[in-house]
Amino acid sequence: MREFINVLRRFVPPYKKYLVLSVVFNILSAVLNIFSFAALIPILQIIFKTGDGKAATGWMAWDWGNAQEVLMNNLNYYVNTLLAEHGQTTTLLFIGLFLAFTTMLKTGAYFLSSATIVPIRTGVVRDIRNQLYRKITALPLGFFSEERKGDIIARMSGDVQEIESSIMSSLDMLFKNPVLIVAYFTTLVFISWQLTVFTLVIVPVMGWFMGFVGRKLKAKSIKAQSLWSDTMSVVEETLGGLRIIKAFCAEEKMRQKFDRINTGYRNDIMHVNIRQQLAHPMSEFLGTVMIVIVLWFGGVLVLNYHALSGPTFIYYMVILYSIINPLKEFSKAGYNIPKGLASMERVDKILMADDSIKESDHPQHIQQFEHQIELRNVSFRYGDQWVLRHINLTIPKGKTIALVGQSGSGKSTLVDLIPRYYDVQEGEVLIDGINVKDLGIQDLRQLIGNVNQEAILFNDSFRNNIAFGVETATDEQVAEAARIANAYDFIMQSEQQFDTNIGDRGGRLSGGQRQRVSIARAILKNPPILILDEATSALDTESERLVQDALERLMKQRTTIAIAHRLSTIRNADEICVLHEGHIVERGTHESLLAMDGFYKRLNDMQNLG
């Protein structure tokens, strides 16, 4: 229960007014229910002629010490007055109308109490999804290299849905049923404290059975949700690798893998649901047993000891039966909540994940890049393995620096340190003499444009992809960026021109077209620093020529850091740095590096031979 209270403390405070309204309407509903059922006593007295004439000799003044006696006397007095004035059948009609009117008020209050919970339920689930999305966009890239995309999607979909159906659906039960239980229990004590004390001996036994099954549920739920994540991961991998699956005739292998994981999830969720279905039958049975025992003991009090009248005992049983349903609903919440808490634990692995890329408490704000980028004695590692060691590199404004080397030599990691996608473990990265850790993250990244080997586009129109991140861009500026990037012609030839949707990840475009759209996006951003990460390596010769032409226009008057496998694309760089096993082993111009007859010369010779 402590975990559940913590969840409420985190997410419910913005909706306190709805919570207060719900409690008020629940109290009103409980009070009206008690008074409406009180009409049963005079109805039974009239029908079975069991009225107590002594109790109705006159109207008694209120006395807290004898509240029960005063209420019963005045009720009988009022009913007897009606009987004397209007007769039995008319009095029954009056009492029946009173019962119908109070029931209408009670059901109205009941509806309002449930309706005021709905904004809390839906609002909390929306807030959790928003927090998850904000956290996902805020977390460093390193977090996602250790997590599967399918698992993250499962947490945003399946786990949040489970929180809604388990925890949030229990809010109504938890804020309504305790009010009803307290109100009904107070009434039971008021009618007969002896019978109520006897009832209390039985209730804890029922509660113990409920808790025993509920404790087993949470562990199973955690395992089931984990297998759901595995299922989503296989689906995500299949959609991303469908071409390879078909090329290697691996459809059956993937089907068997999915079936194995899906069957495991089905078996675990089946056990959870079967145990959950036990809640209602168990509570129904235990409730009936309790009623039978109380009926026997109450009969003894009525028949042998005359501790209370027959109609009053029936009213007691009606209220007791009314308390059973809130207790059953309360026990159902006890089954549902552990499932939701299991999902909340998985969601919290994202919400509570450490964001290692933190902005300084008092960041420096810069709007322009004036002088140089400097990597000073930089070392970086993933886990325990060093990827870069003792890197010293100065990139003056307006110069083009190329990074070459074998795959895994640390080129992409090096350029990822400049916009702070990762933070260095040793040394520092400086822009205009300021450590990037001291700069505002948004200010830093506004200075930098990226064109990657894989053009990352969104399932949207050409216009929105090119203007991505530049909210104030006009149609003319978007079109001009497309012209500079050699993308204007093929965009204008599409069905709806700049409003044409390019499909998921730009799937309706060729590789060269996707790359030119991403270059147009970088041109429109107009950053002073440009990072090119193998921007042409995946293209055919004709597309490479068009893209290279667009890149050369983009690089004009910009500070450029270019990663390249094809050395022909960086021959004109102001300086070429050769990385090998995390170290810069050679640097210079294309001609000077060839003259060294070292790593660069061997790379160049291998490409020429190819």
TrEMBL record:
<feature type="domain" description="ABC transmembrane type-1">
    <location>
        <begin position="20"/>
        <end position="339"/>
    </location>
</feature>
<keyword id="KW-0812">Transmembrane</keyword>
<dbReference type="InterPro" id="IPR003439">
    <property type="entry name" value="ABC_transporter-like_ATP-bd"/>
</dbReference>
<dbReference type="GO" id="GO:0005524">
    <property type="term" value="F:ATP binding"/>
</dbReference>
<feature type="transmembrane region" description="Helical">
    <location>
        <begin position="197"/>
        <end position="214"/>
    </location>
</feature>
<keyword id="KW-0547">Nucleotide-binding</keyword>
<feature type="domain" description="ABC transporter">
    <location>
        <begin position="373"/>
        <end position="606"/>
    </location>
</feature>
<keyword id="KW-0067">ATP-binding</keyword>
<dbReference type="InterPro" id="IPR027417">
    <property type="entry name" value="P-loop_NTPase"/>
</dbReference>
<keyword id="KW-0472">Membrane</keyword>
<dbReference type="Pfam" id="PF00005">
    <property type="entry name" value="ABC_tran"/>
</dbReference>
<feature type="transmembrane region" description="Helical">
    <location>
        <begin position="174"/>
        <end position="191"/>
    </location>
</feature>
<dbReference type="InterPro" id="IPR011527">
    <property type="entry name" value="ABC1_TM_dom"/>
</dbReference>
<dbReference type="InterPro" id="IPR003593">
    <property type="entry name" value="AAA+_ATPase"/>
</dbReference>
<dbReference type="InterPro" id="IPR017871">
    <property type="entry name" value="ABC_transporter-like_CS"/>
</dbReference>
<feature type="transmembrane region" description="Helical">
    <location>
        <begin position="285"/>
        <end position="307"/>
    </location>
</feature>
<feature type="transmembrane region" description="Helical">
    <location>
        <begin position="92"/>
        <end position="112"/>
    </location>
</feature>
<dbReference type="InterPro" id="IPR039421">
    <property type="entry name" value="Type_1_exporter"/>
</dbReference>
<keyword id="KW-1133">Transmembrane helix</keyword>
<dbReference type="Pfam" id="PF00664">
    <property type="entry name" value="ABC_membrane"/>
</dbReference>
<dbReference type="InterPro" id="IPR036640">
    <property type="entry name" value="ABC1_TM_sf"/>
</dbReference>
<protein>
    <submittedName>
        <fullName>ABC transporter ATP-binding protein</fullName>
    </submittedName>
</protein>
<feature type="transmembrane region" description="Helical">
    <location>
        <begin position="20"/>
        <end position="48"/>
    </location>
</feature>
